[in-house]
Design brief:
Length: about 500
């Protein structure tokens, strides 16, 4: 990740010119501690519950040199990627690594977003079985992207997966952090294990045994993983199993339950690592830095890590938003089978529009809409409108409704049109000119054409709707064409 050894050599070279050699050992230990603290700040950013109240100093703030470095990062005339759009997206990846079957497949995929203006943080977990289009490979599980990239160009997996997830969410991924299982397990052993409170007893009768994947005796490939409820002390091996288990009974086999267990482990690691005894032990800190350097890959620079920490350190727990893409009755995914018969997850809507909408709305407002708020502030209008989707693009009506509501119009219906061949959006004015300002503003917002009269087929459709559902007549009817999808994102949605 960072060339720590070279950094140490450069500093020691400078030190040898001004300080006598007997003090080199002390300087080296001091440097290791400082680097360790910076790395711990970096790790703490990803742990959802590690945020201090805004009216108190954190343990890091109480260390003078860290405070000085943090001040330099805050006052530097540099912005983090994503700051200009008030949304910094970081992709968190977990892989098996060396010694694991399919070691470059991503076992954990999560997008952490930071919204600086409101001091909010969100976490969106993406299941590894979600099928997406991969260039040159057709529709494959998203966990293949890192492996394909690493096979083609070692070291490119993080960037390639960032691009794939960015396409999936229709949003830029600014940074990535990738960790392998060996590093995770070793770190926990190095800090003496962790204490975790287990909410629900975990029984997984099909936990895979490393190295036994091809055992002729099928039942010897798995073990029964059992973890009782209550406080449990876990070494690295047990903590990794607890975090990775996918087949627990009683609801513990879901992605949501698995995500909660992973968060518990991370919080326990944080609590152990930031203890005073650990931080004041140069040997332990040095060993931890070595493990991190070997088992973590990221495109974050040191100053970016520090500045991110400054942004999120005061975020309280109620400022954390957690979402998981799943196949529950209300979820956005459904079970399916790929061309090769393998289990996959697919979007319930048929495309990724609902997932993209969820991500854009994760802080409660559409990122694209935020850019229009100030422009529309002085253009508030009143009236009612029905929005009909005149395309085969799923979710288009709901996505467009948010922007129209911001103008002041009351959206009384979002539905599908009986005709789906509209390329250009059309507005039908049922006030017949009584609300000209509203009509003009709506046209500017949507770029739609204004039709002079209602076509016969639409009259019949409206009569049927009013008779069947006793709907109130709207002031305007907007039928969305494919151009509305282009206008919503700036580029045509090809998913």
């Amino acid at each position: 990740m960072y060339d720590n050894e070279q950094m140490l050599q450069d500093l020691e070279s400078l030190n040898s010119q001004t300080i006598k050699k007997p003090k080199r050992g002390k300087l080296r230990r001091f440097i290791l501690i400082i680097i360790g603290l910076l790395m711990l700040m970096y790790a703490a950013f990803y742990i959802k519950n590690y945020f201090a109240p805004s009216n108190k100093q954190t343990w890091i703030d109480k260390i003078p040199i860290i405070g000085q470095v943090k001040h330099l990062a805050e006052s530097a005339d540099r912005e983090l990627k994503g700051e200009e759009r008030d949304r910094i997206n970081i992709l968190l990846l977990g892989i098996g690594g060396k010694g694991h079957d399919g070691g470059q497949l991503t076992d954990t995929i999560m997008v952490a977003s930071v919204k600086p203006s409101t001091e909010q943080v969100s976490l969106l977990s993406i299941p590894r079985d979600l099928a997406i289009p991969i260039e040159g490979s057709g529709w494959r599980k998203i966990n293949n992207v890192n492996a394909f990239a690493e096979q083609s160009d070692p070291g490119s997996g993080g960037i390639a997966t960032s691009q794939a997830v960015g396409d999936l969410l229709d949003a830029p991924i600014d940074y990535y952090v990738r960790v392998d299982f060996q590093g995770f397990e070793t770190i926990i052993d190095q800090i003496g294990g962790v204490d975790v409170y287990v909410d629900n007893t975990l029984d997984d009768y099909a936990y895979p045994i490393l190295g036994q994947e091809d055992n002729p005796d099928y039942y010897s490939r798995y073990e029964h993983l059992h973890v009782d409820t209550g406080w449990q002390h876990m070494d690295g091996s047990l903590a990794l199993k607890y975090a990775r288990s996918r087949h627990g009974v009683g609801g513990e086999g879901s992605d949501f339950a698995r995500a909660k267990r992973q968060q518990k482990i991370l919080e326990a690691v944080k609590n152990k690592v930031i203890s005073a005894n650990f931080l004041l032990n140069p040997k332990q800190v040095s060993s931890l830095i070595s493990t991190l350097d070997k088992n973590i890959s990221t495109n974050l620079k040191v100053w970016e890590i520090i500045k991110l920490w400054s942004m999120v350190k005061d975020v309280k727990s109620d400022g954390i938003i957690n979402k998981v893409l799943d196949n529950s009755p209300s979820g956005l995914l459904i079970d399916g089978r790929g061309d090769n018969g393998a289990y996959i997850l697919s979007p319930r809507s048929g495309d990724f529009s609902e997932i993209q909408y969820l991500f854009s709305q994760i802080f409660g407002t559409d990122d694209n809409q935020n850019k229009k708020d100030s422009k529309n502030e002085n253009k508030k209008i009143s009236g009612t409108i029905s929005i009909l989707n005149g395309t085969w693009i799923n979710g288009l009506g709901n996505r467009k409704a948010l922007a129209i509501e911001s103008l002041g119009l009351d959206v009384i219906e979002v539905s599908n049109s009986s005709r789906h061949n509209f390329e250009k959006s059309v507005i039908y004015d049922l006030t017949f000119g009584a609300k000209r300002q509203a009509l003009q503003t709506l046209k500017e917002e949507t770029g739609a054409n204004i039709a002079p009269t209602l076509p016969d087929w639409l009259k019949e459709e409206l009569i049927a709707r009013n008779t069947e559902k006793q709907r109130t007549q709207p002031d305007f009817i907007l039928i969305l064409g494919t151009d509305a999808d282009i206008n919503s994102s700036g580029t045509e949605n090809t998913n």
